[in-house]
C-alpha cells in the first residue's frame, strides 16, 4: 500500500479537550485493562501453552496439512468468528468467506480455523414485535459467544465477520477481552440500491393512514430489501461500518464494497494475509488493545457525528469503550458535536443511500476531509500500522491485483458528501438534553429548524401498541408530545420504537407540532420528527419520566439542550411514580430466558451492559 500525502492539520482544540478528559476519567480502568492484556501476552504461538491432550483436541479435525502446521508451532493460527446465517441479507454473503480465508491463510503461511459462530438477529424483522425485546441484549450474548470462540487459546489473531446493529458492537466487546490478539473486522457489503428511500417512507405513511393496503406495503418493502447484502439506509448497521473504518479495524475503504464481487473477495483475502502478518509470531505485532485507545474512541464519535449516524451508538460506543477500560458519556458526544460539521446526507438524513455515499467518495473522502481540519487523531494505531492517513485511500483492482489509491479530491455528489469547508451544517446534529425529565439524546441532523423547539401537551403511553391504537382512533391529531415510558433496558430490554415513525411523520405533515420522549430507542431510523430518546434514569429505575401526566406541558429544546415538564416544583415533587405493568413482557419469544439480563442491565448512558459486573 502506498500512503498518499495530503495536509493533516493539527488537532482541533475541542477534540483535544474531550480526549484529555476521557483519558483522565479512564486512567485507572484503562491501566487495569492494559495490565490484563499484558499478562495475557505470551511468546510464540499461543497454542504452545496447551497441554498435549488439550492441543490434540484443538487440531483433531484439521486436514493433514493444517494439522502438521499447527503441530509445528511456526505458522500463526487465525480464528474466524462469524455471524453468518442465510436468512438475513446482511450476513448471507459471509457463507463464502471461510473458504476464502482458509485459502488466503495458507498462501500467507498461516492456518485459519472457524472458531465459532455468533447469533445475528435483525431489527428489521422483529421491529414492533415481541422478539425485538431480545435485540439489545443480543449484543451481550454475541460478546459472550465471541469470548467462548476465542477461549480455547488456540489462536494468534482473529477475523470478525459481522455487519449489523448489535453484531459488530458485540464482536468488538468480546474481542476486547482478548485484546492481546490482533483483530481485523471483515465486512460483507451493502445490497444494490432498490426502491428510493423517500418512496418507501411515503408508502409506509399511506399504510399508517389506511390509504394503502398490506399488499402495496409488502411490494414496496420487497423492492427496498431485495438482495444479499446490508440494507442501504444509514442506520446502525452502516454506521457500524463507518466506525470500524475510522477506528482502523477494517482494511481501508472496505466498508461499502458490494458482496460477491471480485473486489470484495480480494479484500477478504487481504484481511486474512494482514492478520497473519501482525501476530506476535512476526515483527509487526499489532494487538487490538493498542488499536482501541482513547484516541480511537474519539475518532469513532467524530465519524458518527460527521455522517449523521445512528443514535444507537450513544449506547454501543459507550459499551465498546468500557470493554477497553475507557469511560465516555453523552457530554462527550454533545461537546464533540459542536465541533464536528455534518459532511454527509444519507437517508434518513437525506434521500441518498450508502451506495450513493460510497460512489461520491465514501469513507476515504470523509476521513481525509476530517484529518485535513484536525478533527481526527491522525497518530492512532490501526490494523495497517501507525497513522490514520492510510484510511484516506480506496481499494481497487488493477490487472486482478488489489491496490489502494487516493480517495477522490472532490465529491462525486455534493448533495450526498461534502468537504469540510462546505458542510451541510456546522455541527454534527447530536445533542444532550437535560432537565427535570432526566438526561436524553436527540438527533437533529434531519430535523427542520422550525422543529428544533417543541412545546406541547403530553400524552402518556406505556407501550407502542397503545400509540398505534390512539393514532388509528384520531386522538393524536393535534399538537402533542408522546411520552412512551417503561421502554428502558431493565423494563423490557429497550426495544427500538421505529414503528412510531410513520404515524409521527404523518402528524407532523398535517402541520401539528409533535415530538417523542421515551426511555426507549429509535436507532438510525431517527428522522425528521424531534425525538428525545434513551431518557435516563429509565422509568423502571425511578426515572422522573414516570411523573408525567396527560396534559402536562413539556418543552423539548434541542437548541438550548433542555427537556422539561413545565409543572410547578412542589407539585412535581409530590407526584408518585407509577407501578409498571410488565408481566406481558416477561415471557414469549424467549423473553423468559433474558430475565437476568434485564435485571443486571445498566442504564443507556452507561452502555446498557448486562455482561459486566
Explain the overall architecture.
There is one protein chain. Helices cover 37% and strands 14% of the residues. It contains 23 helices and 16 strands. The strands form four sheets. The protein has an eight-stranded mixed β-sheet. A four-stranded parallel β-sheet has the order 2-1-3-4, sandwiched between helices. The model has no long low-confidence stretch (mean pLDDT 94).
What's this, in brief?
The protein is an alpha/beta fold and 613 residues long. The protein is built from 23 helices and 16 strands.
Tally of helical segments:
23
Could you give the order of strands across the largest sheet?
9-10-14-13-12-11-15-16
Work out the count of structural domains: 2
Report the radius of gyration as a whole number of Å.
Answer: 24 Å
Inertia-based shape: globular
Largest sheet at a glance? 8 strands, mixed
E-strand count: 16
Residue windows where pLDDT falls under 50 for at least 5 positions? none
Q: Overall mean pLDDT score?
A: 94
Q: What share of residues is helical?
A: 25-40%
Distance between the termini: 42 Å
Task: Please state roughly what percent of the residues sit in beta strands, choosing from under 5%, 5-15%, 15-25%, 25-35%, 35-45% or over 45%.
Answer: 5-15%
Class derived from helix and strand content: alpha/beta
Oligomer, anyone?
A: single chain
Amino acid at each position: 500500500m502506498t500512503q498518499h500525502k495530503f495536509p493533516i492539520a493539527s488537532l482541533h482544540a475541542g477534540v483535544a479537550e474531550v480526549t484529555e478528559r476521557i483519558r483522565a476519567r479512564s486512567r485507572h480502568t484503562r491501566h487495569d485493562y492494559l495490565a490484563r492484556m499484558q499478562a495475557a501476552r505470551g511468546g510464540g504461538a499461543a497454542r504452545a501453552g496447551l497441554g498435549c491432550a488439550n492441543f490434540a483436541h484443538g487440531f483433531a479435525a484439521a486436514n493433514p496439512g493444517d494439522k502438521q502446521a499447527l503441530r509445528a508451532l511456526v505458522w500463526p493460527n487465525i480464528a474466524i468468528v462469524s455471524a453468518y446465517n442465510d436468512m438475513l441479507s446482511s450476513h448471507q454473503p459471509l457463507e463464502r468467506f471461510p473458504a476464502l480465508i482458509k485459502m488466503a491463510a495458507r498462501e500467507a503461511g498461516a492456518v485459519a480455523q472457524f472458531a465459532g459462530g455468533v447469533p445475528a438477529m435483525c431489527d428489521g424483522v422483529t421491529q414492533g414485535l415481541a422478539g425485538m425485546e431480545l435485540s439489545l441484549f443480543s449484543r451481550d450474548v454475541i460478546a459472550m459467544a465471541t469470548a467462548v470462540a476465542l477461549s480455547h487459546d488456540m489462536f494468534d489473531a482473529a477475523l470478525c465477520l459481522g455487519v449489523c446493529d448489535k453484531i459488530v458492537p458485540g464482536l468488538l466487546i468480546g474481542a476486547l477481552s482478548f485484546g492481546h490478539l490482533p483483530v481485523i473486522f471483515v465486512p460483507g457489503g451493502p445490497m444494490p440500491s432498490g426502491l428510493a428511500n423517500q418512496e418507501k417512507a411515503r408508502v409506509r405513511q399511506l399504510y399508517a393512514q389506511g390509504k394503502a393496503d398490506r399488499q402495496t406495503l409488502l411490494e414496496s418493502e420487497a423492492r427496498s430489501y431485495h438482495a444479499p447484502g446490508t440494507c442501504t439506509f444509514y442506520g446502525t448497521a452502516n454506521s457500524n461500518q463507518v466506525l470500524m473504518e475510522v477506528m482502523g479495524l477494517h482494511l481501508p475503504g472496505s466498508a461499502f464494497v458490494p458482496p460477491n464481487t471480485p473486489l470484495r473477495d480480494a479484500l477478504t483475502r487481504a484481511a486474512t494475509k494482514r492478520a497473519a502478518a501482525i501476530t506476535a509470531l512476526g515483527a509487526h505485532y499489532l494487538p487490538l488493545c493498542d488499536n482501541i485507545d482513547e484516541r480511537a474512541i474519539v475518532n469513532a464519535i467524530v465519524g458518527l457525528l460527521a455522517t449523521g449516524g445512528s443514535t444507537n451508538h450513544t449506547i454501543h460506543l459507550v459499551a465498546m469503550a468500557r470493554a477497553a477500560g475507557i469511560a465516555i458519556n453523552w457530554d462527550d458526544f454533545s461537546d464533540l458535536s459542536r465541533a464536528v460539521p455534518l459532511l454527509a446526507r444519507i437517508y434518513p438524513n437525506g434521500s441518498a443511500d450508502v451506495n450513493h455515499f460510497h460512489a461520491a467518495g465514501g469513507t476515504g473522502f470523509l476521513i481525509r476531509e476530517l484529518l485535513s481540519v484536525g478533527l481526527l487523531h491522525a497518530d492512532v494505531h490501526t490494523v495497517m500500522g501507525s497513522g490514520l492517513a492510510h484510511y484516506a485511500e480506496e481499494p481497487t483492482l488493477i490487472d486482478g491485483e488489489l491496490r489502494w489509491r487516493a480517495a477522490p479530491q472532490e465529491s462525486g455528489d455534493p448533495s450526498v458528501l461534502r468537504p469540510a469547508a462546505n458542510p451541510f451544517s456546522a455541527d454534527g446534529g447530536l445533542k444532550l438534553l437535560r432537565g427535570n425529565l432526566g438526561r436524553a439524546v436527540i438527533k437533529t441532523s434531519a430535523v427542520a429548524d422550525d422543529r428544533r423547539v417543541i412545546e406541547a401537551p403530553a400524552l402518556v403511553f406505556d407501550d407502542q401498541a397503545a400509540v398505534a391504537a390512539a393514532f388509528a382512533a384520531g386522538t393524536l391529531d393535534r399538537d402533542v408530545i408522546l411520552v412512551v415510558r417503561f421502554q428502558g433496558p431493565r423494563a423490557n430490554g429497550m426495544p427500538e420504537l421505529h414503528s412510531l415513525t410513520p404515524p409521527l411523520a404523518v402528524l407532523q405533515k398535517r402541520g401539528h407540532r409533535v415530538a417523542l420522549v421515551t426511555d426507549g430507542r429509535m436507532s438510525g431510523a431517527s428522522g425528521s420528527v424531534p425525538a428525545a430518546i434513551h431518557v435516563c434514569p429509565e422509568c423502571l429505575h425511578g426515572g422522573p419520566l414516570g411523573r408525567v401526566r396527560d396534559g402536562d406541558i413539556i418543552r423539548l429544546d434541542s437548541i438550548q439542550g433542555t427537556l422539561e415538564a413545565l409543572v410547578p416544583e412542589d407539585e412535581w415533587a409530590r407526584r408518585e411514580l407509577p407501578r409498571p405493568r410488565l408481566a406481558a413482557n416477561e415471557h414469549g419469544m424467549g423473553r423468559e430466558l433474558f430475565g437476568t439480563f434485564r435485571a443486571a442491565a445498566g442504564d443507556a448512558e452507561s452502555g446498557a451492559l448486562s455482561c459486566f459486573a
